[in-house]
Amino acid sequence: MKINWDRFIAFNLPVVMRQIKIFNFLKVLLSGVVDLHDRGQDWRDAALQRASYNSSAIMLERMLRDQMGVAAEIQPANSPYDFKVVIVKQGENYDDARLRALIDKYKQADKAYYIENGAVDFKVSFIDYVCEELSDVFSAQFINYRCEQVYVNLINTITLVVDQNELGETEVYATSEYPVSSPIVVTLMYGQQLQFEVGATRSESYYPHYGDLIDKWTIEQITPEQDEDYHYQPGTVIQWRIQTTDTSVR
Fold first, then answer.
1. Collapsing DSSP states into helix, strand and coil, what is residue 176?
2. Cα 64 from chain centre
3. Which of 64, 95, 152, 200 has the greatest number of beta carbons closer than 10 A?
4. Model confidence band, residue 90 (pLDDT cutoffs 50, 70, 90)
């Protein structure tokens, strides 16, 4: 059923609301419904057309012309075939596989046929040698284990922390963003080493000797640099923290 959607919208609006803005707004809202209706109408027309075909010769010729744009003639054939399909004009959308599928769909089940295409000329010329394709079978045997390289994308940052109390005593340790998956050794600028146990987020502590230049310390190396879970890298900032004692009266 064909619908004039402009008239449909206008006639179903109250007179006081028949304004350009309201009309255009409703037209946009109904655009999806209009598209579905048009596609459903096209499907209905195509379905009715397909349902009108039968196995008669004249209908098979009409079906090929409608569906593929192929001009064909159905002619009697000698045994063991019942008829032949003579292609007079194949058109731009000719496809042999689709042609056979359409004929098989509408012809009688016990009828045999063949296609005679007189509208196609084939010309073949060999311009060079062509290597024949050979079927080769290769086998492989693994004689030893081989470790696969693991690519780790998750970064676990190691940060150096220096704590000082009011008495001037200093404690140096390192912290990790995530619990480490390997025994990690952090080497400082002057050779001191801080060790992490597996699963820890804080290393063992180091207490500097008198005269150590604690303001110059940096992380020089992290061993190992990576494992199956993390890539370990030093933090960009050293944390300096002053511990104070709460002397307020309670």
1. strand
2. 39
3. 64
4. confident
Phi, psi of 83 (to 5 degrees): -155, 165
Question: What one-character DSSP code corresponds to residue 170?
Answer: E
User: What is the torsion angle, in degrees rounded to the nearest 10, for the CA atoms of residue 138, residue 141, residue 147 and residue 153?
Assistant: 30
Spatial distance between the Cα atoms of 75 and 61, rounded to a whole number of angstroms? 11
pLDDT for 175:
93
3-state secondary structure of 206: strand
Joined together, the tokens standing for residue 234 give: 């030093």
What phi and psi values does residue 24 have, to the nearest 5 degrees?
-65, -35
What span, in angstroms and rounded, lies between the C-alpha atoms of 220 and 201?
19
Residue 104, token pair as written in the block: 């098989």
| First CA to last CA distance, the chain | 90
In a 3-state reduction of DSSP, which class is residue 18?
A: coil
pLDDT at 209: 75
Question: Mean pLDDT across the stretch 108-132?
Answer: 79
SS (H, E, C) 62-86: HHHHHHHCCEEEEEECCCCCCEEEE
